[in-house]
Amino acid sequence: MTAAASAEIARTVVGILGNIISAFLFLSPVPTFVAIWKRGSVEQYSPAPYLATLANCMVWTLYGLPMVHPHSLLVVTINGSGCVIEIIYVTLFLMYCERSKRLKVFMWLMVELIFITVLSLITLTLLHNLNRRSQLVGSTCIVFNILMYASPLAVMKLVVKTKSVEYMPLSISLASFGNGVAWTTYALIRFDPFMTVPNGLGTLLSAAQLILYATYYKSTKQQLAARKANGEVNLSQVEVRDGGQESKPNYSS
């Protein structure tokens, strides 16, 4: 077996692994939407992460097409699947959000669809060279990925401010790190700068999240324990009596 053939097999295996990890990340909001469906309301949840992920998946699907960037089937499979999943999320959001918010979400969705349509038309009709097509769509992918980093950066800022990792699940941080490593490796085997740059940055951000988790894990446990203890004290001070009489604090030792 030649070195080139071995490299291609390794790239395929890493790409399949990347598909599996990415699928886990795409499906991670399912419990949130099950809760929204049961309550019949999106409450305070923001549609921004799902709209941003949809836009990101659409441009990466375009990038992976054979007429734009050949030999990138695994990029198409996962991002095409991501588009379907995110459209379902956005549709559920439209169904269960308030009318005022619904119009705003719908307008953003239309803007994204118009943008990807225009980008596709320009790429496939005006650019007749694979290299130019890859450069245009690949550069767009990098910009969209960098914009998506605003979300993990905001979470990391919150962790440092509160000294708590309560709102930064370890499973998501680990999956994000594994996803970044897999796709960075995939991009390096057959060097692709447009995939290496955003996934390399994503790997570094995920590693920083894991470092923060290790740093603030103990303080988070202490905060949760203190909160639980306070709740138990408050409950223990309430003496419930039969006959519907008024409850009184219990100060006896």
From TrEMBL:
**InterPro entries reported for this sequence:** SWEET, SWEET_rpt
Q: Name one GO cellular component term.
A: membrane
Q: Name one GO molecular function term.
A: sugar transmembrane transporter activity
TM region positions: 12-36, 72-94, 106-130, 136-155, 167-189, 201-217
Gene Ontology biological process terms, A to Z: protein homooligomerization
Domain of life, per UniProt, equals Eukaryota
Principal cellular location given in the protein's record: membrane
Which Gene3D superfamilies does this UniProt record tie to the protein? 1.20.1280.290
Q: Specify whether Transport is a keyword of the entry.
A: yes
* Record's keyword terms, sorted: Membrane, Repeat, Sugar transport, Transmembrane, Transmembrane helix, Transport
Q: How does it sit in the membrane?
A: Multi-pass membrane protein
Q: Where does this polypeptide localize? A: Endomembrane system
Question: Function, please?
Answer: Mediates both low-affinity uptake and efflux of sugar across the membrane.
Q: Which family does it belong to?
A: Belongs to the SWEET sugar transporter family.
Q: What is this protein called?
A: Bidirectional sugar transporter SWEET
- Organism, scientific name: Arachis hypogaea (Peanut)
